[in-house]
TrEMBL record:
<feature type="domain" description="Peptidase S49">
    <location>
        <begin position="136"/>
        <end position="290"/>
    </location>
</feature>
<dbReference type="InterPro" id="IPR004635">
    <property type="entry name" value="Pept_S49_SppA"/>
</dbReference>
<keyword id="KW-1133">Transmembrane helix</keyword>
<dbReference type="Pfam" id="PF01343">
    <property type="entry name" value="Peptidase_S49"/>
</dbReference>
<dbReference type="InterPro" id="IPR047272">
    <property type="entry name" value="S49_SppA_C"/>
</dbReference>
<keyword id="KW-0645">Protease</keyword>
<dbReference type="InterPro" id="IPR029045">
    <property type="entry name" value="ClpP/crotonase-like_dom_sf"/>
</dbReference>
<protein>
    <submittedName>
        <fullName>Signal peptide peptidase SppA</fullName>
    </submittedName>
</protein>
<feature type="transmembrane region" description="Helical">
    <location>
        <begin position="27"/>
        <end position="48"/>
    </location>
</feature>
<feature type="domain" description="Peptidase S49">
    <location>
        <begin position="389"/>
        <end position="539"/>
    </location>
</feature>
<dbReference type="InterPro" id="IPR002142">
    <property type="entry name" value="Peptidase_S49"/>
</dbReference>
<keyword id="KW-0378">Hydrolase</keyword>
<dbReference type="InterPro" id="IPR047217">
    <property type="entry name" value="S49_SppA_67K_type_N"/>
</dbReference>
<keyword id="KW-0472">Membrane</keyword>
<comment type="similarity">
    <text>Belongs to the peptidase S49 family.</text>
</comment>
<keyword id="KW-0812">Transmembrane</keyword>
<dbReference type="InterPro" id="IPR004634">
    <property type="entry name" value="Pept_S49_pIV"/>
</dbReference>
Length: 627
């Protein structure tokens, strides 16, 4: 039978459609294959361009120096979307890794150290970085430091360079340790706020600003003793690094007014005359200097170099084999769960438990940088370390800037406690603070009444005077926890509670002072703690594994595409809240913004004390601000 014309049209259209569909799939498959090839090349195809000989490491330390970043990639994304200001964070472990790897890299000929944007750090962490610079120099490589200015912390690191330069309009500002605090007894009386304090420890001064108009004699004595020790350590360290006569820094500070007159106010020349720097140079002059000493880059416009973040990305850890698990305990200790860069009784305990149950982890290092917090949460963490030791895995505590009060509590179940000489530790003491505003209520004509079934039913009502029976209960609880604290410390330190009490009472010590009093075992660095853990676990080779909160797939993707942004956030929300408090206090009091900020933060802490904990909870926290 002959085919109709419509049959031919249908067949032709069908052939055309099948060909079009096949072509579409072929093109899409080719595009997808090309994408896979590009990704494969990016991931597996040789990686970054190899580092050429005579390359200089540019150690541009940007951000707040921390033990652990306190922001996730999700936080970074949200902050960016909301238009918030991000805070860069620089992990100590990354700085040490880069310097130690570069010291062994034959293609790295030297380093340029830039500290203009490095913030904070604290004496212990800064000494860790300075020691890493010394190790780099010991490999025969030169470090040149340059800055527009140096503050006290930045200079502690820069002083360890072979050569230190500052901009001709810059200065090295070394101020010393210790600051004035605000005391609010009269102000709170005028407002009608009564602060009820229950404590054990003659030197437990955390809450004194709310109950007095100045420090107690004991607090003043302890602060002076601590600050003088930190200052002596700082000046000795810098004078040794710069080969200055002993006492030169203090002499320079004492003579500063006369030197300003002598040099017509030129602070840079005063700095040079004091031999704190080796010369006055602009950034372009430093670049020319490095070109002459090394090799020019491919374009001939600068010296051959590799940046800190680029070099860090080239470093990797083995994925298998025996490991030392590191748990970071940074920040105040709170009950329950806390995010990265902070300590939660439950969440940090979970991390330690994970390390204990991991067959590849043979020892645990707890890196502590904490002024304390909840006694209950501290005990949960200490108990997990005790169980880890009982399971046959050595535990070594490495104290960073601060390991005081609750920070010391969580350090008590270890085979060895290692502190930096400038670590702030001790503060074995306990307190509870309960603000009430019954006088404010009277002024406003507010009255409270009710029929609770027991006197405990509303024992802590902020608008009523504190019931003496409740004070008795709280003081008894404080006394008990202090006795428990000292007893546990005595057991850990193999001594008696009486001897611990003699060096406790809430008193804060440097690491060196704590070693003299038997509160720590060894003075050393984070690296020493890792080495000790490896030796105790009888490991000849090991990898370091950081036990941290698992991130979601979404956060992992964000980290891949914006890792730098993820590390840049930190405390943007807290900064915004602080700014609002600052403006509020400035408007209410007429104080300058700088002074208002400190008042706002102190008052915010007092206002949050009830909301952040149960009335029956006592606190193991010290007044430990990192210098």
């Amino acid at each position: 039978m002959a085919r109709s014309p419509f049959s031919y049209i249908r067949s032709g259209f069908g052939f055309f459609w099948r060909a079009l569909d096949a072509g579409r799939r072929t093109i899409l498959n080719l595009l997808f294959l090309a994408l896979l090839i590009v990704l494969a090349i990016a991931i597996f195809g040789g990686g970054a361009k190899p580092i050429a000989a005579k390359t200089t490491l540019v150690l541009d330390l940007k951000g707040q120096l921390v033990e652990q970043t306190s922001a996730s990639p999700r936080d970074a994304l949200l902050t960016g979307v909301q238009g918030g200001e991000t805070l860069r964070m620089l992990q100590l472990r990354d700085v040490l890794k880069v310097l130690d790897a570069a010291a062994k890299d034959a293609n790295i000929s030297g380093a340029v150290l830039l500290t203009d944007e490095m913030q904070g750090g604290g004496p212990a962490m800064l000494r860790e970085v300075a020691s890493a610079i010394d190790r780099f120099k010991a490999s025969g490589k030169t470090v040149v430091a340059w800055g527009t200015n140096y503050d006290q912390n930045q200079y502690l690191v820069a002083a360890h360079a072979n050569e230190v330069y500052v901009h001709p309009m810059g200065v090295v500002m070394i101020e010393g340790y210790g600051r004035y605090r605000n005391y609010y007894r009269d102000a709170l009386d005028k407002l009608g706020v009564t602060v009820n304090l229950m404590r054990v420890g003659t030197y437990k001064s955390f809450a004194e600003p709310y109950i007095a108009n100045g420090p107690s004699p004991a607090a003043a004595e302890a602060d002076a003793y601590l600050n003088n020790a930190l200052w002596t350590s700082y000046t000795d360290n810098v004078e040794k690094a710069r080969k200055l006569p002993k006492g030169q820094i203090m002499k320079s500070i004492d003579e500063l007014p006369a030197k300003v007159a002598e040099f017509n106010g030129d602070l840079a020349k005063i700095t040079l005359a004091a031999k704190l720097v080796d010369g006055l140079k602009t950034r372009d002059e430093i670049r020319d200097l490095m070109i002459k000493r090394g090799a020019a880059d491919d374009e001939g416009k600068s010296f051959r170099q590799v940046g800190f973040e680029d070099y860090l990305a080239r470093q990797s850890e083995p994925m298998t084999g025996d490991a030392i698990g590191v748990v970071i305990a940074q920040g105040s200790i709170s009950d329950g769960t806390a995010g990265p860069g902070s300590i939660g009784g439950d969440s940090t305990s979970k991390l330690i438990r994970a390390a204990r149950e991991d067959k590849n982890i043979k020892a645990v290092v707890l890196r502590v940088d904490s002024p304390g917090g909840s006694a209950f949460a501290s005990e949960l963490i200490r108990r997990e370390l005790e169980l880890t030791r009982a399971a046959g895995k050595p535990v070594v505590v490495s104290m960073g800037n601060v390991a005081a009060s609750g920070g010391y509590w969580i350090s008590m179940s270890a085979d060895e406690v290692i502190a930096e000489p400038n670590t702030i530790t001790g503060s074995i003491g306990v307190f509870a603070i309960l603000p009430t505003a019954e006088k404010v209520a009277d002024k406003l004509g507010i009255h409270s009444a009710g029929q609770p079934t027991t006197w405990l039913g509303d024992a802590y009502n902020p608008l009523r005077p504190l019931d003496p029976r409740f004070v008795q209960v709280m003081q008894g609880s404080v006394n008990h926890i202090y006795a428990d604290f000292t007893a546990r410390a005595a057991k850990a330190r193999k001594t008696t509670p009486e001897k611990i009490d003699a060096v406790a009472q809430g008193r804060v010590w440097t690491g060196a002072q704590a070693k003299e009093r038997g509160l720590v075992d060894t003075l050393g660095s984070y690296g020493d703690a890792l080495a000790s853990a490896a030796k105790r676990a009888k490991l000849t080779g090991y990898r370091t594994v950081y036990i941290e909160r698992e991130i979601s797939k979404f956060e992992r993707v964000l980290g891949m595409v914006g890792g730098t942004a993820a590390q840049a956030v930190g405390q943007s929300v807290a900064n915004a809240v602080s700014a609002k408090l600052n403006l509020g206090v400035t408007a209410a009091t007429g104080l300058p913004p700088g002074a208002a900020n400190g008042v706002a933060q102190d008052m915010a802490w007092l206002a949050d004390i009830k909301a952040s904990r149960k009335p029956f909870t006592v606190i193991t926290h010290c007044l430990c601000e990192v210098p």
